[in-house]
From TrEMBL:
Gene3D superfamilies: P-loop containing nucleotide triphosphate hydrolases. Pfam families: ABC_tran. The lineage of its organism: Bacteria, Pseudomonadati, Pseudomonadota, Alphaproteobacteria, Hyphomicrobiales. GO terms for molecular function: ATP binding. The keyword ATP-binding applies. It comes from the Bacteria. This is Sugar ABC transporter ATP-binding protein. The keyword Plastid does not apply. Belongs to the ABC transporter superfamily. Keywords: ATP-binding, Cell membrane, Membrane, Nucleotide-binding, Repeat, Sugar transport, Translocase, Transport. InterPro entries: AAA+_ATPase, ABC_carbohydrate_import_ATPase, ABC_transporter-like_ATP-bd, ABC_transporter-like_CS, P-loop_NTPase. Residues 6-242, 259-502 form the ABC transporter domain.
Length: 509
């Protein structure tokens, strides 16, 4: 027990009669990685928010170094040496990286105010330790999501915490950035820091974890030393059975080409192209997976297709007709729909209900007599979307923020599908989703393809692109490196193409 720094005893948390945690017990060991796993909605984030002082438990006690403590606010947690890196980013976009790292604890020069130079120097030290390749003077909103994640981690490391909670810290990081993060975690362990690590990437947990705790439906279903278990034990403890087979395809032959891009280009402000003359096509009923590492240009390509960059060039065709309009609303009317990578900022309206988020992009379908919304038709369509996507929504009128991350992702997908698209673009559709929710989403993709929908999805997960795609396109440095039939693809081929794209000629699919 000497190495237990924090203990939760019989912690229960209820929201409006819904029990998110039920008599949960957890011990965190100092100088170790304490892994916490469970499906979306299992109670992981609730437990972490309690430790971080964001939420207060309904019942139960918290002990730090054997002394009972109250964590009434995040400031309380910080005073006790507890820091957290949330899965959903919490940066101020209009402030610099340095200002974000030192927000609420600015370095000052007495009456002369904030010492910006000192903050930049200190922030750069933390960023260099993470090998982030980021200047502390850069505006946070100008960074891609992966680098924003590194800024969050740098801020947490800068707090000199005794307990550091990391909620899906690698979800937007490249393999090289993950290696750097793991080296930082190893360094923190040697300093006696207790790491709480939440991730859906089971191989990652096996690689880095020391202790593991499994949550299911708000209750703890397993404790173990990581060295004593394997990934099958984790999955069985999480979902009550072995992993669901999301790779099993629905057998059907793709039809004619329904979507095509020609020479899509997006210039960078500093020169060169974020998207460099990309031409590709997708057939009816086909899933085309785009694989690439961070900075490959996958998200930027989707944004160009949806008309979000007025200065981009190139042509987009749906069913042989060139799309002329450059605004997103018109592109949706013309049969395109996008599931964005960042569901919180770009996929959902946080202040609205589950139902309103689902129908907001398709309200035109329910208008009658020019200005009245047929509420009954809208409600039926919402309930059908919830049913078909297996969304866990006890009450569609609840705020969308009351849902787990995986169910929020399903709401974003449902919103897109309710517009009746001919082509569905999905940017990292499984980011932050557990094995159960991932299986649901992937089965939905296969079902939709079987019904004739053309699907173009991007991922940096090699297993995912190999399992789901009918054809695989590889992007690197903004260019389309190669397009290959899934039956002819190997993991070595895909990884090699993604790493050496700058040496390869442009391809057309």
């Amino acid at each position: 027990m000497d190495d237990v720094i924090l203990e939760l005893k019989d912690i229960t948390k209820a929201y409006s009669g819904i029990v998110a945690l039920k008599k949960a017990n957890l011990k965190l060991h100092r100088g170790a990685v304490n892994v916490l796993v469970g499906e979306n909605g299992a109670g992981k984030s609730t437990m972490m928010r309690i430790i971080a002082g964001v939420e207060r438990p309904t019942l139960g006690e918290i002990f730090l170094d054997g002394e009972r403590i109250e964590l009434s606010s995040p400031a309380d947690a910080v005073r006790h040496g507890i820091g957290i890196v949330f899965q959903e980013l919490n940066l101020f976009g209009n402030l610099s990286v340095a200002e974000n790292i030192f927000a609420t604890r600015e370095i000052t020069r007495g009456l002369r105010g904030i010492d910006h130079k000192a903050q930049v120097e200190k922030a750069n030290e933390f960023l260099n330790r993470l090998e982030a390749g980021i200047s502390a003077e850069t505006l946070a909103e100008d960074l891609p999501i992966g680098q924003q994640q590194l800024v969050e981690i740098a801020r947490a490391v800068s707090l000199d915490t005794r307990i550091l909670i990391m909620d899906e810290p690698t979800s937007a990081l490249s393999a090289a950035e993950v290696d750097v993060l793991f080296r930082v975690i190893a360094d923190l362990k040697t300093r006696g820091v207790a790491i709480v690590y939440i991730s859906h990437r089971l191989e990652e947990l096996m690689r880095i974890g020391d202790y593991i705790t499994v949550l299911k439906d708000g209750e703890i279903t397993g404790h173990a030393l990581v060295k004593d278990i394997d990934t099958r034990w984790i999955v069985r403890s999480m979902i009550g059975s072995d992993a669901k087979d999301f790779a099993k395809p629905v057998e059907h032959e793709p039809g004619e080409e329904v979507f095509r891009t020609e020479d899509i280009c997006l210039p960078r402000a500093q020169g060169g192209y974020a998207v460099d003359h990309v031409s590709l096509g997708v057939r009816r009923g086909e899933i085309l997976g785009i694989y690439g590492l961070m900075g490959a240009g996958r998200s930027e390509l989707f944004e160009c297709i949806m008309g979000r960059h007025a200065h981009s060039s190139g042509k987009v065709f749906v069913e042989g007709e060139e799309l002329k309009g450059r605004d997103t609303t018109r592109r949706i009317r013309e049969g395109l729909a996008l599931i964005p990578e960042d569901r919180q900022r770009e996929g959902l309206v946080q202040s609205m209900s589950i139902a309103d988020n689902l129908s907001m992009a398709s309200l035109g379908q329910f208008v009658r007599a020019g200005f009245h919304i047929d509420l009954k038709r809208e409600k039926n369509a919402i309930l059908e979307a919830i049913r078909s996507l297996s969304i866990k929504a006890r009450n569609p009128e609840f705020d969308v923020t009351s849902m787990s991350g995986g169910n929020q992702q399903k709401v974003v997908i449902g919103k897109a599908l309710m517009t009746g698209p001919k082509v569905l673009l999905m940017d990292e559709p499984s980011r932050g989703i557990d094995v159960g929710a991932k299986a649901d989403v992937f089965r939905t993709m296969r079902r939709l393809a079987g019904e004739g929908l053309a699907i173009l999805f991007s991922t940096s997960d090699l297993e995912e692109v190999m399992a789901l795609s009918d054809r695989i396109a590889v992007m690197s440095n903004g260019r389309l490196v190669t397009v290959v039939d899934r039956r002819d693809a190997t993991e070595e081929m895909i990884v090699s193409a993604s790493a050496e794209g700058h040496k390869t000629r442009r391809m057309h699919a």
